[in-house]
Amino acid sequence: MSETTVFFTIVCGGLLLWFLFGREKPARYRKKNLLTGRERDFFYRLRRALPDCLVFPRMPLSALIEPTGIGRVRKTAHAAIEGLKVGYAVFDMDMRLVAVVELDHGVRMSRRAAAREAYLDRAGIRIVRFPARKLPSETNIHATIYARSASQNGARVSEATAQSDVIEFIPQRSPWRNTLNAHM
After folding, report:
1. pLDDT, mean of each 10-residue run, the chain (184 residues)
2. Contact 34, 57 (CB under 8 A)
3. If you write DSSP's letter for every residue of the chain in order, what string do you get?
4. How many CB atoms lie within 10 A of CB 10?
5. How many CB atoms lie under 10 A from the CB of residue 57?
């Protein structure tokens, strides 16, 4: 055999091997369920218990809070909350956050979950935990969410309605926040 035939055979063999094994294959995807099992049951239970609220499952933390400050501190704080999610975000019909609801699985809280709760606490967002093993009733959910929101939103009971135990909700005005988006 001549040298050119051997050379072309090696080149063609190499190209064939590269074509079969070396090319990047396109990524494959499949549908993913947003909620499974108890999470889905609890979501529907939350919706039935709070018909005058909007419930959003698996809400990104960055959609609920934002870091304050400027420069490196803001970037670091933003990186810390990036990718974190809360179980369920409960909003009233005016799209004001009422509470963040979490299913407690009874295991020790991870550092990441503790940090997430600390961020929410610093932002003044209330966290309500329910046990995942024994889901609460709809009336218990309703009473827990509204009892805590009434005490946190500065609810006032007037003397005329004090006898009937009706709580008047007076929404709080959100404090002024710095909207300057300076990047240094």
Report:
1. 84 83 77 86 91 92 87 87 90 92 82 87 90 87 77 39 38 53 54
2. yes
3. --HHHHHHHHHHHHHHHIIIIISPPPP------SS-THHHHHHHHHHHH-TTEEEEEEEEHHHH----SSTHHHHHHHHHHTT-EEEEEEEETT--EEEEEEEE-SSPPPHHHHHHHHHHHHTT--EEEEESSSPPPHHHHHHHHHHHHHHHTT-B--HHHHTTTPPBP-PPPPPP--------
4. 10
5. 17
Q: Please provide residue 35's backbone torsions phi and psi, each rounded to the nearest 5 degrees.
A: -130, 145
Find out whether 172 and 154 touch, Cβ atoms under 8 Å.
yes
Q: What is the rounded CA–CA span in Å between residue 39 and residue 88?
A: 10
Integer Cα distance of 96 and 93 in angstroms: 7
Residue given tokens 């400050």 in the structure block: 69
Distance (Å, whole) CA 88 – CA 130: 11
Residues 6+ apart with CB under 8 A from 139: 49
Q: What is the pLDDT of residue 47?
A: 92
Which tokens go with 125?
A: 């967002």
Check: CB of residue 77 under 8 Å from CB of residue 67. yes
Q: What is the pTM of this model?
A: 0.63
Pairing state between β 53-60 and 85-92:
antiparallel
